[in-house]
Amino acid sequence: MGFIMKALSSGPSGSLLVTLFASLVLILSLLMLTGCPKSTIVAKPGAEQPAEPSRPVKRPPQIEQPSQPTPSTPKEFYELGEYGRAERLAGSLITAPGLSAQDRSQAWLYYVLSAAANNHVHLAQQALKNWAGSEPGIENATAWQDAWLGVTLRFPAAEAKERAQTASDPAQPLTMRARAQAVLALKAENREEMGSALAAMNNFYNGMSGAEKAAFENIFADQLRWQQPGLLGELYGYISADNAIKFPYTIINLEQGRRMLFSTSDEYRSSGRQIVESLAGSGLLASPQLAQNLLDLAASQKNALSALPSDMPSQGTVALLIPLQGRYGTYAQKISAGAQAAQHALAQSGVGATVVVIDTETPGWQQQLASLPRSTVIGGPLTREAYEQAKAAGLLQGRAVFTFMSQLDPGEEGVSAWRFFSSPHDQVASLLEFCRALGIHGVGSLYPSDDYGQRMNTSIVKAAGSYGINVTSHSYPSDNPDAWSSAVRDILQMRNSGSSFDALFLPDTWPNAKGLVPYLFFNKEDRLVIMGTTLWEQSLYNDRSPDASYFYLGVFPGSWSSEGGTAAHQSLVHILNQMGGGQAQATDSGVPGIAVNNVKADFWYALGFDFVRFGMSMGEPEAGMFSGEGWSAQQVNSKLQKAQNIDWSMAPLHWDSAGHVSQRMFLFTPTEDGFASISLDEMKRRIEETKRLHGQRWSN
After folding, report:
1. Dist. CA 119–CA 334, nearest whole Å
2. Does 279 lie in the same domain as 152?
3. Which residue among 410, 504, 620, 686 has its CA within the 20 to 30 Å range from the CA of 492?
4. Pick from 306, 328, 353: which residue ends a domain?
């Protein structure tokens, strides 16, 4: 390497570039190390490989404070990772009358970006063409060309290269031809293709203006962050003494530095910082802010991590009993990824957490559980079947087991097992408390006659008295929509006959709720607050036509809010943005703790994130007369009183002295593009508005 160092030191910025290249050389030695980060996650055999998360085409600047006002534009939803809502809203705005040219252009942009992020790549490609047809000259704009690059890279190699060849026509703008070369470099099938495309990128870059260079640096850096380590390694192999200080090789260096900067390894982070700092101050980048933003983000993440309480043992082990395969595998993979994020967060405070993940869908998992020290705090099982198997085998005795289940059998909670999950009572309690604050003293419960509906109706009837609220109940057959109209009419007649209520509880799925509520309007009743359950949430993530006009007074509970503002919430969002989802083995970028793809935080990630920090806070049981005795119920319930004071990323859990848990849940309302948080004041305003308009609506 001596000749390289000499060549670099001959220029006016020689000393700075020597520092830069010395850091780059260090990468090669670090990547040959076999050491693992301080915190490791142990995944037992049998786990499915997690699906690759959807990724945005062009990721806008990082949101530093997730607790922003409720999003209302496609751009805001996109930046929060709400790609489905962004696509739906942008699609409706494109054809909306009276929209300004600037707003319509932005609607086109975020429709393309979010459609591609949702893997609707052909829709995104067609939207690019339609956008160009409706806005002459937009193809010369940086935003359009950047979107083109992101969409094209999502196609298979042959199709992407064909599109890139078309865009390489000499009649195309220089900036467009440069982006076409980026496609050819990232989709290259041999070294000759890749080397030629990288060299062409440099030639086109040299002919650009300063602003065009900066834009090209940003989009190429953004696309590099999604590449797998093998491809990044191939690109890195083209860096030499002659080109190390030239584009695009500087950006390849920057991406390697970025991955190291956000590693769980202290050594990698230090080397990554050297690389990024050197590039930020080298004068080599047309957009030095590109590197500085990474340093700022790292500092922001460090501040968020350091805000988490670290009053826990410096070392420890917790375990997860989750079904990494099968029906619930997707949720379990998220729990596992959230646990990995917690390890990373704790490592920043000098806490080494080992997480043992036992796949309850793998034969022999009970033996793996039996082999764990009895002092290990356990999260799970997630399913009733696995819980019953462990209980029947006597594997829960003397252990601190916190199930991810909504209910335990009578007499079990706080005695032989505990819960780390909300219950039906938590849902109805959150709704009843909201009703009381609204001044509502009567609630109707229109529930399906299946097991779930009866259970939820029983729960609200039992809980209502402590809130000073009366409940009027009536059932309907959920599998017979023809009977719904009469069921709605019957409960309204009960209301008119003296069973007064101003809110209606509908513990059914979102599709069924959409079928029921219009019958209220048919009977000229639009003033009721419509209350749902957590069943609505998942459907509203994916429903493209939620018919929110019928649910203007709708409200339902949830355990996770994307608008949360705690330090733990911010830490989880930051780490997932940098680390990606899934297990490290499946998505490793070649740098410890850093995966390639980022993901959007949700409840299941938060469940794993909060449990690991909670489990570490529990510590170990006090030593008894004999070693290895494990936990007593009294010890668990005592330790809970301190451990529950962690900073929560989801809605906080609270255990009483008997070990019974409750959760005060967030409240949401359906909207035209999904759902959003609803405040007490906003609901009061909506109720008054609806009452005022009620007479006008039905005057005819």
Report:
1. 20
2. yes
3. 686
4. 306
Structure tokens at 451: 């097991």
- Is residue 600 located within the same domain as residue 635? yes
Q: Considering the chain, what is the average pLDDT of its residues?
A: 83
Cβ of 262: how many Cβ atoms within 10 Å? 24
Confidence at residue 306, expressed as pLDDT on a 0 to 100 scale: 66
- 268, 205: one domain: yes
Within a domain: 567: no
DSSP annotation of 138: G
The residue assigned the tokens 């009061």 is: 684
Are 632 and 549 a contacting pair, CB within 8 Å?
no
- Could you tell me the pTM of the whole model? 0.70
Does 72 fall in a domain? no
The three-class DSSP label of residue 315 is strand
Question: Among 129-133, 436-440, 628-632, 689-693, where is mean pLDDT lowest?
Answer: 628-632
Amino acid at 228: Q
Structure tokens at 656: 């009483």
Scored b (16 or more CB within 10 A) or e, 70-89 reads: ebebbbbbbbbbbbbbbbbb
Query: How many angstroms separate the CA atoms of 17 and 511, rounded?
Result: 61
Cα–Cα distance, 180 to 152 (Å, whole number): 9
Q: Which residues of 620-637 are buried (b: 16+ CB within 10 A; e: fewer)?
A: bbeeeeeeeebbebebbb
586: in domain: no
Q: Where are the alpha helices (DSSP H) in 307-383?
A: 329-347, 365-370
CATH label of the domain that carries residue 491: 3.40.50.2300
> Does residue 616 lie within any of the structural domains?
yes
Residue 308: band (very low, low, confident or very high) from pLDDT cuts 50, 70, 90: low
- Give the whole-angstrom CA distance, residue 560 versus residue 543: 19
Using one digit for the tens of pLDDT, what is the confidence trace for 353-403?
A: 899 999 999 999 999 999 999 999 999 999 999 999 999 999 999 999 999
pLDDT digits (tens, 9 = 90+) for 67-119: 334 567 888 878 777 788 788 888 889 988 888 889 999 999 999 998 888 88
Distances (CA, A) of 398 to 257, 344, 353, 501: 47, 29, 22, 48
Q: What CA–CA distance (Å, rounded) separates 600 from 98?
A: 33
Final residue before a domain boundary, out of 281, 306, 331: 306
| Domains identified in the chain, total number | 3
Q: Domain check: are 300 and 324 in the same one?
A: no
- C-alpha 22: how far from chain center: 37
Length of the chain as a residue count: 700
Task: Say yes or no to pLDDT of 324 above 60.
Answer: yes
Predicted pLDDT at 89? 87
Within 8 A by CB and 6+ apart from 658, the residues are 414, 637
- Host domain of residue 692: 424-558+668-697
Same domain, 168 and 257: yes
Domain match, 105 and 220 both: yes
Same domain, 26 and 142: yes
The two three-digit tokens of residue 329, written as one number: 């595998």
